[in-house]
Amino acid sequence: MKTLFLFISICFSLVCSGQKPDLSYTLSRKDSTTLIIKVAFTGNATGETTLHLPDKWASQQSLYKAVSGLTALSPATVISATDRRDKYTVRYKPGTNVVFSYLLHKDWEGPLKYPLYFRPVINADYFYFEGYSGLVYPSLADTAHIKCRLSYEGFSKDDFFGNSFYANATDGKFTVSQESLLNAVFCAGKLRSRTTKVAGHQIVVALTGKLAFSDDTAFSSITNIIQAERRFWNEKGPEYYFTLFLPLYDQGNTGGTAHYHAFSLFQSVGLDLKSNLLPMIAHEYFHNWLGLGLKMPEPDEPYKWFSEGFTEYYSFKILFQSGLISKDEFLGRINGYLKDYYLSPYFNMAAQKLIGRYWESSELKLLSYRRGLILAFLIDSRIREKSQGSLDDLLRDLYRQSGPAMIFSNVLFSRLVRSYSDAATAMAIDKANGGDNSRLTKLLFIGRIYQADSLQVDKVFDLGFDWQASRKAGEIRGLEIASNAAKAGLANGMKLTDRLSVWFNNTSKPAEIGVVDKGKEKVIRYIPVLQVDKIIPQVKALK
Ligand SMILES: [Zn+2]
Known about the structure:
This protein is an alpha+beta fold. The protein folds into four domains: 169 residues, Immunoglobulin-like, CATH 2.60.40.3650; 90 residues, 2-Layer Sandwich (Zincin-like); 151 residues; 65 residues, no CATH class. It has a six-stranded mixed beta sheet. A five-stranded mixed beta sheet has the order 15-16-17-19-18, with helices on one face. β5 and β6 form a beta hairpin. α8 packs antiparallel against α11, α10 packs antiparallel against α11 and α11 crosses α12. It starts with a helix and ends with a strand.
């Protein structure tokens, strides 16, 4: 017993001396919209260190505006401004412990909306910020292994505490790279949470607000998706993983950001879990393997059908496999994508042509998601017709065989498609990616896993000109000669006024486009449709 005690105490002291932090943060509250953050670090031999304030992150600029009151707390320490608003210099006695503090504010007004969560969110009830948006940090010699300590002080004991490193505690030590520290999340307050432990691996989910779904449903479905994807790839994941859900007080927005060992989720209050949030979690988490684990060659636009489209397919298949959506809901999604793909203005565009054009318009960007999802669905069905296996096995095989470079290879992929399915499937995939969908269509119509069905479409929404380019230029651009827009009198180069009314994807409501024509303002009205004659493959569950 005595030996055991001695052994433990030696270990303890070793751990303690080994864990003296290089950098520590103590978070406390000043008032309902301000935090006081105390920072301590070991000064270097020169006695001078640069302090970095948040600046640009995601769509946000000038994040240093949320920081004020930089104050030196250690003896003989002086902080001075530089010619950059996001950099300060701190001078101190060489080699001593340097301590300073700063105030972090909510520097925007009103309730949380997209995309304000990329700035510090500090309310009376809770606070949330990301390393990028809220941490002031010193330049350190070793940025790869920073021994950190993070504490919360003076909060109510009923508050929840959570971050990328630990939860349900007010103090923790960890070693992390500077990059991961900045990519971490930090929060505390009146949040509801659940911790799930599987084989020593913790998943913590925290949320707040009055939501359209029960806490239990959110906790269990988010945890289930993460666990299902880890099982899919036979990986245990990090020992600790944190997920935070914050409601947005706007309409129709769903967003999520993957962080260091954490996931931040945002959705407009009133929206349910199934339509957007759960598929988004499943999609983003799947990128840990398709996209991050297995990277695409550069330029990556010609491979987006795989990295985005297959990930999109699994965002629904994982939900279906986990019982979070029904088979009909799963097939409903597939049918929706089939319709969108077959009606896409870029249906016949080769993947190679996407280089440099991917972000040009949402239709161009979505082409890879739609085509890739349908190709994944086709391969999955074709493999299942032939064997006990599925696309799941092919993907795991691809992942294994892609090492050690872990760069996606179309040659390896095609070889696997031929061996798991057949040459006809591999050929249909290649042709579709080259812009020829005839073989794909034929195979979809003869599928035996689901009952093939079809949808006849005689008209599609067509505004008749390039909406985004026109809005950007302030004048009509990209007019289609045979469109209803042209027939109604719109012409390239006409200046736009602010009298614009368009019901996107609605084929019965007239579009109203205000323009200046020969010096006169007028509004041109027309039904934004294009006559087509398309037979679109659809699928139904076998009776
Ligand atoms: Zn994605």
